[in-house]
Structures are given as structure tokens and as C-alpha cells.
# Entry
Amino acid sequence: MRMNKPVIFPFLKRLSANNNREWFNEHRDEYEEARVEFENFLATVIGRISLFDESIRGVQPKDCTYRIYRDTRFSADKTPYKNHFGGYINAKGKKSDHCGYYIHLQPGNSMLAGGSICLPPNVLKAVRQSIYDNIDEYISIVEDPAFKKYFPVVGEDFLKTAPKGFPKDFEHIDYLKCRQYTCAYNISDEFFTQADALEEIEKAFRQFKRFGDFLNYTIDDFE
# Structure
């Protein structure tokens, strides 16, 4: 299946250039058409992920998507609308700490990603402990060429030093410095019009699941 890129990406480009309420209200029909197209594509992706991750079965696109409106209360950027569509496919819901699959559509900045962000301190510490205690298993995932083909970098927002409670001379200390345990596969806008787009999404997320399963083994103890 190919996404109807002529609907979604042109709308997002126009929205970025005209990010104000007057323009949006005048083009609300275009937004609704793009939103429906994205949700239909998301439903197809959910179905594909369900083939190898049974926990996703029954998840609906409405459970995964976000409002187009930005929360500008604490932001210097007061533009009212997001310039992307995002879908977070999570068996335990969008607000769960449980690792999920994420699809991000934004002209020039699209990606397939996943992981857990903003983990509570006790959960984050437990995840680091699990990596430390099972470092060989973790490395067998994140350093596997099949995984790195899609996700060459694991984690974001790194500490400058070893986290408290872990030895500074640990050989793989960089794996414990993540504040956000995520990974992302950056893709072009044209990716979604390829005949094999869905197959490539499945391949990427099959690899991500190995990483997610490792983290969720610990995270789910706190859910």
C-alpha cells in the first residue's frame, strides 16, 4: 500500500507557510482530508505490526493520534498548529511508559521511531540497571547490523558523566547515559510513495521490537 502523499504532504507544507487560525479555518476541509488519509494509513500499519506483535491487535488509529493544536502556553513559538502528523502505536496507550512504535510525517523530517521518553526516575534507573546486568543481550540487539541498518543511534539527551550508582569505568557506560531510550529511522517524503513502503515499515519495526521488548521487560513491572 502507498500513502496518498499528494494529500498529506502538500497540506502540511501549506500549513507551515500559513500557520495561523484564519488560514486554517479557511482550509479545514483540506485538513480533514489529510487527517482521514493519515488515519487510514495508520490503520494499515497497525494491521501490519499486529502480524508480529499481538499486543497491538485491537489498537485503533484514534488511540494513536494527536490533536493538531499546539500547546503554546510555555513556548516562545506561538504558532497555533503542529506542522506534522504523528501516530504513537502503543499497546498500553499513548500516555504509558511502555515502549511503542511511532510514525512521524513532516515534510523533510519524517521518521519511523519508538521507545520511551520522560521515564520516572525510578523506572529510568531500573532500565539502566537491566542494561548493566544484561549488557551482552543488550549489545546483541543494538549493535546487530540488522538493527543498525534502521537505527544507527540509540538514545537521546545524554548525561555527560556516568549516572549515579553505576561505575564510571564500565566499558559500555555510554549505553547508560541516555535520559530518553529511543531510536529513529529518518526517511524521505518519497519513502511513502514507494511500492514497498509497507514492507520496509514492517522490517524497521520488527527490528525495533527487539529493543522495545528488552526495555518493556523492566518498564512493565512499574505499569
Notes: Strands lie at 85-89, 100-105, 110-116, 154-158, 178-187. The chain has one domain: 7-220. The mean pLDDT is 94. Helices lie at 5-17, 21-26, 28-49, 121-133, 135-142, 145-148, 197-219.
